[in-house]
Structures are given as C-alpha cells and as structure tokens.
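--- STAGE predict ---
source: upstream dedup step, 1 unique chain passed
mode: sequence only
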Amino acid sequence: MQDSAGGLPVFLARILAIPLLRHHAPMESSFAMDSSAPVLIFYARNDALGDGLLRIPALRAARTAFPQSRVVYGATRGSSLSHVLRKHVAHLVDDFRTNTRLSAILAEFAPRGRKAVVVDLRTGVPGLMLTALQLAGRGIRHEANFAGHLLSLRWGTRLTLRPEHNAWRYHRLIERLAARHLPFDHRLDVPDAARTLARQLRGGCSRPLVLLGGNAQGRKCMSENQVVAVAGNLIDAGYQVLYLATPGNGPTLRALVAKESRLEVASPELAPDITSFDDLLLALGEMAVAYIGMEGGLAHLMAAVMTPAVIVNNGANMERWRPLSNAVEVVAAPRRGRSAYVADAPVEAILDAARRLLAAGRRDHATMPERRETAPVQFGAR
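--- STAGE serialize ---
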C-alpha cells in the first residue's frame, strides 16, 4: 500500500486498517447501484494466477446482483483471468481490456452521459483518491478497494469493516454496490476429459494421492532435497506422490527422479495446451488427499477444488493470501523479508504439518449445492 505521502491518504489508510470481524450485521443502504446499470468496469493493476482466482467470487457476485450489466474487466498490465482462467469466467465477463489505461476503457465503454461504475481493485490510497476525483467529475461511481474504501462511502451507506482476506475484500465491494449479502463461491468446475486424463495418469493406483509443487519464481522455489525427502517419506508411508512440474524455476525433473525413482511427475506435455494442463491440475486436486507446496497461485488453484494443503510460506501475509480452505497447515520459512527462502524451511517441519493434515482427513464442503449463475446479456457482435 502506497501511503508514504502522508496527510489525508495516511489518515484514511489508518482508519481503515480495522481487524476482520467474522460476523457482520446485515448490510443496509439507501444508495445501491441500479440493477439495470449498463456498464460495470473492474480495474486491476496486474493479476497473477492467485490474484485472478481470488477475484472470481466477486465477479460471480456481480453477475448475480447485476445480471443486466455489461461487465468489463481491465488491467494496467496483464491478467490471468483473460488467459489461463478465461474459460472459468467467460460467462461472467463480457469484455477484457488488459494492458489498457482506465481512461481508454472509459472512452470505449462509458462515453460521457452513459452510466458506469468502476470497481477499482488497485491499492495505494493516493492513486485511488486521484481516480475518485477524476471519475466524480464525469459522474461515474467509483467503488475503491481497501484501504481506500472510505473514498466511496456515501450518505446512507452502512460502513462495512475490512475483511482481512483479499478475496472477501473484493467480494465486499460488490456487496456494497448491491446493498445486500451475496453468495461467495471460489470453486472451479473440472471437465470430465481432465478427470479421465487424471485417472490414466494415476495408472489404477489405489494408494491415496499426495501432490507436490515446488516450481515458482525467485525465493518461493522448493529445493531438490526438500522435494526428494518429503516424497520419499510419504511414499514409504504408503502414499502415491505426484510432482506437479508447473512453469517456473525449481528442481529439474531428471534430478528428482534420479534421487527418488518412485516419484511420479505431471508436466504440461501431458496436456495439449496450458489451459488443458490447468484442468488436469484441478482434476488431480479433486482426487488428492493433500497438496504440499508454496504460497502462490498453485495453492489457490488447489483450493478451488477443496484440496487440503500444506503451505510453505516465505513471508506472505497469510491472513490476506491463505488458500480458501479451512484444511490448511502453514509452515513458515525460518527467516523473514528478502532473506526468506522457501528452500530453507526444515523438511521435518513440512512432514510434521503433512502428518497432521493427513491424520485429520478433513476436506471442506465436499458436497455443496450447485451454483446458479445468471448468464450475461448478449450485446451483439464484438
């Protein structure tokens, strides 16, 4: 959060730094967005895989609350929602505009005189304040992300406290627009073809499946020794262990298999394209009794099919970035800050967390009612 400028931005940020309350009073407002509003623009800075996954509940809530609205999703840079996750949100978003300035999106979809609302997912109070002033001059409602939430407070609107988790923050913005509570759903659907491929990959093995993920960027990578030691212990205990060779840096598959020949591997080559590999990962997550890996996008992907997880964290705020499951064990790297490496986490600590998770045998809401999402209004050829 960019609050170093001092003055009013810092004052607003400090006021809004309120701890999460688990139970909230019913939302009340005398100013709710008109359900027939033609344009609802989400705008973010940049969405990695985890960011995109945590924004999906808000997009679902928006489609439910405002079925007649045209939904546009824009970003200053790129977004996983317009790439690997696009098939999961195609019925929720009508138009994507990534690597595009907000002013250009407004010029295209909300020319002067057309009703529009901007749901601003960016952080940094000074920037949010500037955007709020610019939009106010055009009569466009601006729903600012926390900690700039007070910027979009209106007379008669009940002040909502800040949820600590990012996914609930984004969802709360839509609830305030709708002036009512809305369903929160982070699950992703798994194609039957992916389930078939996952079963083939398991080769008829009846042992419980554990997934390992060690590839990432920078300081989040697991080491070769960590992966081999964790895999060997779990295989000795009677589990089938599958290493997920996702894009990024990490141990080489040749080195892993050379040290632990019983370790099996799933890589993108098994699927025709990267989106199909994404589906395969979800299908494997459905079957697995646990996922063990780093804090990041793959952990959030596993949570979308309720896979119990052991997360090795090198300093992320887990109140904000915890996978959306109650079946999560967190192992902290021994150091904090720039010197914190996932590879430094003791293997025994990871195994202890895995044993606790597997002994509990808990899996969140294995059966839930089917989603009922409203399909978007067709706006003609684009």
